[in-house]
Amino acid sequence: AAVPAGVLALLLGTLLWAPWQALHGAPLVELSGDQDFQLFLHKNLEFTRKIKGDVAALQRVVCDIFQLCKEEELLLVRQDLGIVQVPLEQCHSRTFQAEACFSQIHDGLRAYHGSLAAVLELLPGHAGLVETLQLDAANLSSNIQQQMEDLGLATVTYPTEGPGPLPTFSSSFHHQVGGFFILANFQRFLETAYRALRHLARL
Protein backbone atom coordinates (compact mmCIF):
# COMPACT_ATOMS: atom_id res chain seq x y z
CA ALA A 1 0.00 0.00 0.00
CA ALA A 2 1.23 3.46 -0.82
CA VAL A 3 2.41 5.57 2.07
CA PRO A 4 0.09 8.58 2.46
CA ALA A 5 2.01 11.55 1.13
CA GLY A 6 1.85 15.10 2.26
CA VAL A 7 3.00 15.05 5.85
CA LEU A 8 5.80 17.60 5.73
CA ALA A 9 7.86 18.88 8.63
CA LEU A 10 8.85 22.26 9.90
CA LEU A 11 10.51 21.47 13.20
CA LEU A 12 10.90 24.32 15.64
CA GLY A 13 14.43 25.47 16.24
CA THR A 14 13.94 25.10 19.95
CA LEU A 15 13.31 21.40 19.45
CA LEU A 16 16.48 20.95 17.43
CA TRP A 17 18.63 22.33 20.22
CA ALA A 18 16.84 20.66 23.10
CA PRO A 19 18.97 19.75 26.12
CA TRP A 20 20.14 16.23 25.35
CA GLN A 21 21.30 15.75 28.92
CA ALA A 22 17.59 15.30 29.69
CA LEU A 23 17.83 11.87 28.10
CA HIS A 24 20.18 10.49 30.72
CA GLY A 25 17.37 8.76 32.56
CA ALA A 26 16.36 6.91 29.40
CA PRO A 27 15.01 3.38 29.91
CA LEU A 28 17.52 2.08 27.34
CA VAL A 29 20.41 2.42 29.78
CA GLU A 30 20.23 -1.30 30.48
CA LEU A 31 20.67 -1.96 26.74
CA SER A 32 23.69 0.30 26.36
CA GLY A 33 26.06 -2.64 26.70
CA ASP A 34 24.13 -4.88 24.31
CA GLN A 35 26.40 -5.50 21.33
CA ASP A 36 23.58 -6.04 18.82
CA PHE A 37 21.90 -2.82 19.90
CA GLN A 38 25.17 -0.89 19.70
CA LEU A 39 25.78 -2.34 16.22
CA PHE A 40 22.30 -1.23 15.17
CA LEU A 41 22.91 2.29 16.49
CA HIS A 42 26.29 2.74 14.83
CA LYS A 43 25.19 1.23 11.52
CA ASN A 44 22.14 3.46 11.34
CA LEU A 45 24.06 6.53 12.45
CA GLU A 46 26.20 6.04 9.35
CA PHE A 47 23.10 5.38 7.25
CA THR A 48 21.42 8.56 8.55
CA ARG A 49 24.59 10.55 7.80
CA LYS A 50 24.53 9.19 4.24
CA ILE A 51 20.87 10.19 3.79
CA LYS A 52 21.63 13.67 5.13
CA GLY A 53 24.36 13.99 2.50
CA ASP A 54 21.95 13.05 -0.29
CA VAL A 55 19.37 15.55 0.95
CA ALA A 56 22.07 18.25 1.02
CA ALA A 57 23.01 17.37 -2.57
CA LEU A 58 19.40 17.84 -3.68
CA GLN A 59 19.20 21.11 -1.75
CA ARG A 60 22.19 22.34 -3.78
CA VAL A 61 20.42 21.30 -6.99
CA VAL A 62 17.30 23.28 -6.03
CA CYS A 63 19.50 26.26 -5.17
CA ASP A 64 21.38 26.05 -8.50
CA ILE A 65 18.36 25.46 -10.75
CA PHE A 66 15.66 27.59 -9.11
CA GLN A 67 17.79 30.05 -7.12
CA LEU A 68 15.94 28.96 -3.97
CA CYS A 69 18.67 28.91 -1.37
CA LYS A 70 17.63 30.85 1.73
CA GLU A 71 14.75 29.72 3.87
CA GLU A 72 14.13 33.08 5.52
CA GLU A 73 13.34 34.60 2.11
CA LEU A 74 10.56 32.06 1.50
CA LEU A 75 8.69 31.95 4.80
CA LEU A 76 5.75 34.00 3.54
CA VAL A 77 5.32 31.73 0.52
CA ARG A 78 5.49 28.67 2.76
CA GLN A 79 2.39 29.82 4.61
CA ASP A 80 0.39 29.41 1.40
CA LEU A 81 1.47 25.82 0.82
CA GLY A 82 -0.49 24.01 3.54
CA ILE A 83 2.63 22.40 4.97
CA VAL A 84 2.19 20.62 8.29
CA GLN A 85 4.70 19.33 10.79
CA VAL A 86 6.10 15.88 11.40
CA PRO A 87 6.58 15.80 15.17
CA LEU A 88 9.69 14.44 16.84
CA GLU A 89 9.15 15.80 20.35
CA GLN A 90 9.36 12.31 21.85
CA CYS A 91 13.03 12.15 20.83
CA HIS A 92 14.07 14.97 23.14
CA SER A 93 11.43 15.30 25.81
CA ARG A 94 12.35 14.96 29.44
CA THR A 95 10.26 11.81 29.55
CA PHE A 96 12.26 10.21 26.72
CA GLN A 97 11.21 6.66 25.94
CA ALA A 98 12.74 4.50 23.25
CA GLU A 99 9.40 3.23 21.96
CA ALA A 100 8.02 6.73 21.47
CA CYS A 101 11.15 8.18 19.85
CA PHE A 102 11.71 5.24 17.50
CA SER A 103 8.02 5.25 16.57
CA GLN A 104 8.11 8.92 15.64
CA ILE A 105 11.28 8.49 13.58
CA HIS A 106 9.74 5.47 11.84
CA ASP A 107 6.48 7.30 11.07
CA GLY A 108 8.28 10.45 9.95
CA LEU A 109 10.48 8.52 7.52
CA ARG A 110 7.38 6.96 5.99
CA ALA A 111 5.84 10.40 5.60
CA TYR A 112 8.93 11.81 3.91
CA HIS A 113 9.12 8.80 1.61
CA GLY A 114 5.75 9.93 0.28
CA SER A 115 6.36 13.67 0.23
CA LEU A 116 9.55 13.20 -1.81
CA ALA A 117 7.25 12.41 -4.74
CA ALA A 118 6.84 16.17 -5.16
CA VAL A 119 10.62 16.55 -5.38
CA LEU A 120 10.76 13.75 -7.94
CA GLU A 121 8.27 15.65 -10.12
CA LEU A 122 10.25 18.85 -9.66
CA LEU A 123 13.66 17.38 -10.54
CA PRO A 124 13.13 14.76 -13.27
CA GLY A 125 16.77 15.12 -14.28
CA HIS A 126 17.81 13.93 -10.82
CA ALA A 127 15.28 11.12 -10.51
CA GLY A 128 17.98 8.57 -9.62
CA LEU A 129 19.09 10.49 -6.54
CA VAL A 130 15.52 11.22 -5.39
CA GLU A 131 14.51 7.58 -5.82
CA THR A 132 17.62 6.48 -3.91
CA LEU A 133 16.63 8.86 -1.13
CA GLN A 134 13.11 7.40 -1.04
CA LEU A 135 14.53 3.87 -0.90
CA ASP A 136 16.96 4.80 1.86
CA ALA A 137 14.19 6.44 3.90
CA ALA A 138 12.09 3.28 3.54
CA ASN A 139 15.04 1.07 4.49
CA LEU A 140 15.95 3.14 7.56
CA SER A 141 12.30 3.04 8.64
CA SER A 142 12.32 -0.74 8.24
CA ASN A 143 15.58 -1.04 10.19
CA ILE A 144 14.07 0.85 13.11
CA GLN A 145 10.87 -1.20 13.05
CA GLN A 146 12.88 -4.43 12.99
CA GLN A 147 15.06 -3.28 15.88
CA MET A 148 11.98 -2.36 17.91
CA GLU A 149 10.59 -5.84 17.32
CA ASP A 150 13.93 -7.43 18.25
CA LEU A 151 13.99 -5.48 21.51
CA GLY A 152 10.37 -6.27 22.24
CA LEU A 153 9.42 -2.60 22.12
CA ALA A 154 5.84 -1.72 21.29
CA THR A 155 5.11 0.42 18.25
CA VAL A 156 3.47 3.64 19.37
CA THR A 157 1.21 5.35 16.86
CA TYR A 158 0.96 9.11 17.16
CA PRO A 159 -1.81 10.98 15.33
CA THR A 160 -0.39 13.00 12.47
CA GLU A 161 -1.40 16.60 12.09
CA GLY A 162 -3.58 17.10 9.05
CA PRO A 163 -2.71 13.96 7.10
CA GLY A 164 -3.63 13.93 3.45
CA PRO A 165 -2.32 14.18 -0.07
CA LEU A 166 0.44 16.52 -1.08
CA PRO A 167 -0.71 20.11 -1.49
CA THR A 168 -1.87 21.01 -4.97
CA PHE A 169 0.63 23.64 -5.96
CA SER A 170 -1.08 26.55 -7.68
CA SER A 171 1.96 27.46 -9.74
CA SER A 172 5.33 26.10 -10.75
CA PHE A 173 6.92 28.57 -8.35
CA HIS A 174 4.87 27.19 -5.47
CA HIS A 175 5.94 23.68 -6.51
CA GLN A 176 9.57 24.79 -6.44
CA VAL A 177 9.18 26.36 -2.99
CA GLY A 178 7.31 23.27 -1.80
CA GLY A 179 10.19 21.09 -2.94
CA PHE A 180 12.63 23.42 -1.21
CA PHE A 181 10.79 23.07 2.11
CA ILE A 182 10.34 19.31 1.81
CA LEU A 183 14.12 18.98 1.60
CA ALA A 184 14.86 21.62 4.26
CA ASN A 185 12.42 20.04 6.68
CA PHE A 186 13.64 16.51 5.96
CA GLN A 187 17.17 17.67 6.72
CA ARG A 188 16.01 19.04 10.11
CA PHE A 189 14.14 15.82 10.84
CA LEU A 190 17.27 13.78 10.07
CA GLU A 191 19.41 16.04 12.28
CA THR A 192 17.11 15.41 15.23
CA ALA A 193 16.92 11.67 14.56
CA TYR A 194 20.72 11.53 14.22
CA ARG A 195 21.21 13.27 17.55
CA ALA A 196 18.82 10.88 19.27
CA LEU A 197 20.64 7.82 17.89
CA ARG A 198 24.03 9.30 18.71
CA HIS A 199 22.99 10.03 22.27
CA LEU A 200 21.76 6.48 22.77
CA ALA A 201 25.07 5.20 21.42
CA ARG A 202 26.89 7.21 24.13
CA LEU A 203 24.80 6.07 27.08
Automatic annotation (TrEMBL):
Cross-referenced PROSITE patterns: INTERLEUKIN_6 (PS00254)
Residues making up the signal peptide according to the UniProt record: 1-25
Record keywords, A-Z: Disulfide bond, Glycoprotein, Growth factor, Secreted, Signal
GO CC terms in record: extracellular region
SUPFAM superfamilies given in the database record: 4-helical cytokines (SSF47266)
Swiss-Prot/TrEMBL GO biological process terms: immune response; positive regulation of myeloid cell differentiation
Keyword Aminoacyl-tRNA synthetase tagged: no
Subcellular localization(s) per the UniProt record: Secreted
Main location: secreted
MF term (GO), any: growth factor activity
Recorded superkingdom: Eukaryota
InterPro entries to which the protein is assigned, alphabetical: 4_helix_cytokine-like_core (IPR009079), GCSF/MGF (IPR040117), IL-6/GCSF/MGF (IPR030474), IL6/GCSF/MGF_CS (IPR030473)
UniProt cross-references to Pfam families, sorted A to Z: GCSF
Entry similarity comment: Belongs to the IL-6 superfamily.
PANTHER family the record matches: GRANULOCYTE COLONY-STIMULATING FACTOR
Name assigned to this protein: Myelomonocytic growth factor
Organism name: Eudyptes filholi
